[in-house]
Every structure is written in structure tokens, then in C-alpha cells.
Design goal:
Helix content of chain A is 80%, strand content 0%. Chain A is an all-alpha fold. In chain A, helix 5 runs antiparallel to helix 6. The chains are: A mainly alpha, B mainly alpha.
Chain lengths: 196, 177
């Protein structure tokens, strides 16, 4: 599916440019964005090295298993495929915690580690059930403090920069709950298809 | 506000403190472990590069050609009948596709309409309550080499849709025009 979406975006853009005389802009956007992607990846090095280094220490110190034990009842229900006390649980929880506190740059490395662990469990190059659940929750965003948005509101002299925290949390709760429910529905549909 | 910004600035140093104290308590070689774990990060950043570049170039072509804007103006009347304010339509479409573009749009909406306007509050809520689905899926699946993604994209985009609808409903209720 991603292959089609990826190709379709570029193909539609180029064909549209043919008829609207925006080829010049397409060329510009093409190389500018390629540049941006390289800068972004290189910018990620600092964050990835720092957090993966620190998480390695945390893992050896047993902090991740501790975190996993603390939230066991909740997460085992969300990820029934993952054995209890498996390191994947610890990484999933660290990713959720980082997201909750708005530490976006810490969330990505921990999320990738969680995916690695889940891949070791499933041993295929196909997305496993727990991976899809994990990504569904991540894409719906888990935010307690939308720090970036608050900063922008402050910059434009808002009377109450933080007044949107409440609405954001409620909207996030609804979209995360929706993600979990939709994920379950799709899972049951897959199971039914397999039985046939 | 000062309370929230205090929490935000204390968070990371506190995590470092807890990790390092518990590692020292257990007499672990913390520095060596840090370096060992960190090495993975370099490899990871480079393996992500082609995934990010491919996706970002494709999105840039769509945006640069003007096709995305045309698509948005085509969709606007339809979304307006569902009560989506016209100014917010582009943001709701861009949000799952491109994080930087969405942040740019939110900033622009806040600066033109004012942070305390209905549009400003709605843009703020929407920006904070959903994430860039396409980026997350590209990065997470790309990093570990998952080729068949199953229902992940469908689930993510549907959840985004519900998040956007929820934002509009909640902001309307809480900050009634």
C-alpha cells in the first residue's frame, strides 16, 4: 500500500505540473526536499546516539523491566502477543512515556528499539499484530504537554498560551481510544479472513 | 505555565540522573554501556536516510506542483458541509502527511487569526492531538526492515480522521464561538 501511495504522490504531482506549467517548482522542490531529508537524518544522529546510549544503560540497570512490571496489567491487555517481562514491553512503555511528556526526540529511538524487539519475536518481515497496535497508538499521538504549540502561542502573544492543553488532551484521548478500537476491529477482520 | 515549563525542563536531566544512579548502584560500567548503545544510533540514522528521502521527495513533488493545493480546494466544499471551517481544511489534510508542513501551517494560522481566536485554538489543538502518521510508519517500519505493513496505514489514517473530528467538536464546545 505504501508503495502505491508513494508512487502515486510523485506521479500525480508530475502529471499535474505538465498541465499547469509548474515543472520549475517541481524541480526546485525535488532537490530542496532531498537536501532536507539528508539534514534531518544527520540531525537525528545526535538524538539517536544519546538516547540509545542512555537506554542501554537503563536496560542493563533493570529500569526497563521495572517500568514494564509497573504497567503490566494495562500493557499486557494492549499487546497480548508479547510475553510478560519481555524487553519489548519496557521499550514500548519508554516510548509512550517519552511521548506523554512531549520528548519527541527521545520517543523515536525507543520506538525503533521496541520495533526491533517485536521483530525478533515475530521473525518475519511482515508487520505483526503488536507492531500495528503500537504504531496505531503512536500515530494518534500521546501528548500531555504540547510544548511546541504552547511555544508558538507564546510567540504570538496569546493571553493564555496553555488554555489549549485541556482540549488537546481530550482530543488525544479520543483519537488514541479510536486507534485502539479500529486496530482491534481490523485484527478481528484479519482473523476471520484467515479462518475462511 | 511556569509549572509546566519547569516540568518540561527538569524531565530529561531527571531521567539521566535516575538511570546513572541506578547503574552505579548496581556497579555497572555505565560509560562503556552508553558508548555501546550509542554506536547503534549512527547505523540507525544512516539506514533511515533513504526511507525519509524517498518519502519527503515524493511529498515535495506533490506539493511543489500545486496538485496538493488543487486537491485541497477540491475537497474544501465537501468538508465545509460537515462543519469544518474552510481555513482549517488544508491543515487537517497535511497533518498526517508532513510534520514540518503542518507546523508551518499551524504557525501561519495562529499568526493571521491570532492565538486566541477560534481558528487559532482549533489549529493548536489539532497540531497537538495527532501525529504525522506517514512519517512514523516510514521511520519505524523502515528502521527494522518490515516490508509488508498490514493494516497499519489504514488504522493510522482512520485514527487521524477521528482525532481531527474530535478536535473540532471539542474546541467548539469548550470555546463556543
Amino acid at each position: 500500500m505504501v508503495n502505491y501511495i508513494w508512487a502515486a504522490m510523485a506521479v500525480i504531482g508530475i502529471i499535474y505540473a505538465m498541465f499547469n506549467g509548474t515543472m520549475e517548482e517541481v524541480n526546485e522542490a525535488l532537490f530542496e526536499s532531498a537536501d532536507d531529508a539528508v539534514m534531518l537524518s544527520i540531525g537525528l544522529i545526535s538524538v539517536l546516539v544519546f538516547w540509545l546510549g542512555l537506554m542501554k544503560v537503563a536496560e542493563e540497570a533493570g529500569l526497563l523491566t521495572m517500568l514494564a512490571k509497573l504497567f503490566k496489567p494495562l500493557v499486557t491487555r494492549l499487546f497480548p502477543d508479547i510475553p510478560k517481562d519481555h524487553p519489548a514491553m519496557g521499550y514500548i512503555l519508554s516510548n509512550f512515556t517519552a511521548n506523554l511528556f512531549g520528548l519527541g526526540n527521545a520517543a523515536t529511538p525507543m520506538g525503533i528499539k521496541a520495533m526491533e524487539q517485536m521483530k525478533q519475536l515475530s521473525k518475519t518481515d511482515e508487520a505483526s499484530r503488536s507492531m500495528i497496535t503500537f504504531l496505531a497508538i503512536n500515530t494518534s499521538s500521546l501528548t500531555l504537554i504540547p510544548a511546541t504549540v504552547i511555544a508558538i502561542r507564546m510567540k504570538y502573544d496569546s493571553v493564555a498560551p496553555t488554555e489549549i492543553v485541556g482540549t488537546t488532551i481530550i482530543a488525544t484521548l479520543i483519537s488514541s481510544a479510536a486507534a485502539i478500537i479500529i486496530d482491534r476491529l481490523f485484527y478481528y477482520r484479519r482473523v476471520r479472513k484467515q479462518k475462511r | 505555565m511556569s509549572f509546566i515549563s519547569t516540568i518540561s525542563s527538569w524531565m530529561i536531566p531527571l531521567i539521566i540522573l535516575i538511570v546513572l544512579i541506578s547503574a552505579s548502584w548496581k556497579k555497572l560500567p555505565s560509560y562503556e554501556l552508553f558508548v555501546e548503545g550509542g554506536k547503534e544510533g549512527i547505523q540507525m540514522a544512516f539506514s533511515l536516510l533513504p526511507f525519509l528521502l524517498g518519502m519527503m521527495v515524493s511529498i515535495a513533488i506533490l506539493r511543489g506542483s500545486g496538485a496538493l493545493d488543487a486537491f485541497i480546494s477540491l475537497l474544501s466544499p465537501l468538508l465545509q458541509t460537515f462543519g469544518v471551517p474552510p481555513d482549517i481544511v488544508p491543515l487537517s489534510i497535511i497533518r498526517p502527511i508532513s510534520g514540518t508542513a503542518a507546523l508551518g501551517m499551524t504557525t501561519e494560522l495562529i499568526s493571521t487569526h491570532g492565538p486566541d481566536s477560534f481558528i487559532g485554538r482549533l489549529a493548536s489543538t489539532m497540531q497537538g492531538s495527532t501525529d504525522t502518521t506517514l512519517y512514523i510508519i516510514t521511520v519505524y517500519f523502515g528502521a527494522v526492515g518490515i516490508r509488508r505493513m498490514g493494516d497499519a496505514l489504514k488504522v493510522g489514517l482512520l485514527a487521524d480522521l477521528i482525532g481531527i473530528i474530535a478536535s473540532i467538536v471539542i474546541v467548539t464546545i469548550v470555546f463556543a464561538r
